[in-house]
Amino acid sequence: MKQTIKLLVLAALVGISAQSVNAQSKKDKKVSEKVQKKVVYQVFTRLFGNTNQTNKPWGTKEENGVGKFADFTEAALDEIKKLGVTHIWYTGVPHHALVGDYSKYGISNDDPDVVKGRAGSPYAVKDYYNVNPDLAVDPANRLAEFEALIARTHKAGLKLLIDIVPNHVARRYEGKSNPPGVRDFGADDDTSVEYARDNNFYYIPNSSFKVPYSPDYKPLGGDPAPGSDGFFDEVPAKWTGNGSRLAQPDINDWYETVKINYGIRPDGSKDFPELPAGYDAKDYKAHFEFWKDKSVPSSWIKFRDIALYWIAKGVDGFRYDMAEMVPYEFWSFMNSSIKMKNPDAFLLAEVYNPNEYRNYIKLGKMDYLYDKVDLYDKLKEVIQGKSLPDPVTDIQNRFQDIEHHLLHFLDNHDEQRLASDAFAGTPEKGMPLMVLSATISSSPTMIYFGQEVGERGDLDSGFGKPTRTTIFDYAGVPSHQRWMNSGRFDGGALSDSEKKLRDFYKRLLNFTLEADAMTGTFVELQTENRKQGEQYKPGLYSFARYSAKQKLIIVTNFSWVSEADFTLEVPEALIKTWKFKDGSYPLKEKLYGNHTSTLEIKNGKGFVKLKLAPSESVILEVQK
């Protein structure tokens, strides 16, 4: 890494023993028989198919264009599948608040004073039983167009996820497509009190909502729009989505949304049954049985019914926004109901508190959680020269019992683009991070559309600012548009470096799907090799992954300036576990095949001579 990097004071890392490796091997052998690596491709649905390159800040959809469900053609989906993808997450599908006139379709206009951006936040859902009219060629037929996309997605061999945003809904929720018997959120609330268990919202009695004010912000950038008058009619005012209890929330609050009440009293106490001791070890069927005869808050039932509605339409799972702002007892109720309908449903939660991970997995019955606060944050520090990669070992050890459930990513709609100056700086510098993120555990890998061609997210789109691809505005995504190549989806307009990058992602992701060791055992090699001193440079990180069928050695060079010429040491405990004898074992490089290496074993210890270029990684398979 850069010579100026400051070495952190790192805790001593414990070496492996043959006994511990063997015990973990037996455990992971059972896991590998049941688990397959998964790859999620997140697309921001509104942006994916947009070929318009105007990109005027605060531009309308007529000026800047908007993608449609129909843009996900068979050709597009086939190319996504070939990239090495198993699941596609269509972000922003449920009908959310936006600034546009769809009144002729029976849809009320939204107030610009409580909409972020012109195209609106996908996390201010207005109608959970229908889809965003912007995404349809014929808005009157929008639900059927999405159902057709579900069918095309499945035909391509992909499964699909959509968002459910349980913590909040749009300031003015209006279900225009409710199934028979379904009542809107808040329709039956007692608005005279702050809290009642079966109210869907929290209220601020005897108050009126006031639009937040900032001298630095004007809706739509100051462009005139019907309804933009600094006033929104809400009496009594409701709590804001992020928990603000002020009638006039701050401009930085989630003022476009209102918080859902799950039976948590204003003092934080629970107004619903709690799971008995021992339910962390029980399966979803036992959780389902527990809740069958229990009285639960109205909001629980509403969201369960929403999820089952989409499961019945063929949706294969959900990404749950800000799941930790909702009690895990609700998730037990919700997720066990979903699993009873589809045991293979893919349930992914946005949770940022590592101390709560096990509760949401074991009690809330989540399949996967974001591994953001630990692995993502650490890798970002590493590539920015703020940390050594050594602590990655501690992260893996700390979550060894739940490692399969911690989804890995380096890019998504909330985060700064991997290739942006605020993160890695170049797509190439992000490559070793991607190798480690995708191969270090059996957990799913997620990439965000455009990441695979180096999208930098450097546009000022109006509400959305550079380093992140906007989720609030009508816009095009330049690098991705070059891959789209006017709807051909063949990458014909990509630069040579962008083509090379996409080829790297394609090789890596497909390898993780095919490699048996990806669902096997992780053993860190870092501790042993860091003892070598300067010969093993501090920007290196190494580990092994193995199963009964496959033995891999993986080394990444996080330095973007320094070549690494060294001999990797493979500890005796691992060699003994692999039952290798002294001698030479050829190594086959699995991404490009451009490394000729040998594992030399002498007196029970292994040695591999390697030379890595800056930002280079190798995945070496032991040939026996």
Attribute tags:
624 residues, alpha/beta, 8-stranded parallel β-barrel, 8-stranded antiparallel sheet, 22 strands, 25% helix, globular, disordered N terminus
Low-confidence stretches: 1-33
Outline the biggest β-sheet: 8 strands, parallel, barrel
Helix/strand/pairing category: alpha/beta
Strand order of the largest sheet: 1-2-5-10-11-12-13-14
Give me the oligomer status.
single chain
The number of distinct β-strands equals 22
- Mean of residue pLDDT? 94
The share of residues in extended strands comes to 15-25%
Q: CA-to-CA gap between the ends?
A: 34 Å
Estimated radius of gyration: 25 Å
Q: Which range best describes the helical content: under 10%, 10-25%, 25-40%, 40-55%, 55-70% or over 70%?
A: 25-40%
**Tally of contiguous helical segments:** 16
Query: What does the overall shape look like?
Result: globular
Structural topology:
Layout: H1 18-34, E1 39-44, H2 45-48, H3 61-64, H4 74-82, E2 87-91, E3 94-96, E4 125-131, H5 142-155, E5 159-164, E6 168-170, E7 203-204, E8 237-238, E9 257-259, H6 284-291, H7 298-312, E10 317-320, H8 328-341, E11 346-349, H9 357-363, E12 368-370, H10 372-383, H11 391-398, E13 406-409, H12 431-439, E14 445-448, H13 478-484, H14 496-514, E15 521-524, H15 526-530, E16 540-546, E17 551-557, E18 564-570, H16 572-578, E19 583-589, E20 596-602, E21 605-612, E22 617-622
Parallel strand pairs: 1-2, 1-14, 2-5, 5-10, 10-11, 11-12, 12-13, 13-14
Antiparallel strand pairs: 3-4, 6-9, 7-8, 15-16, 16-17, 17-22, 18-21, 19-20, 19-22, 20-21
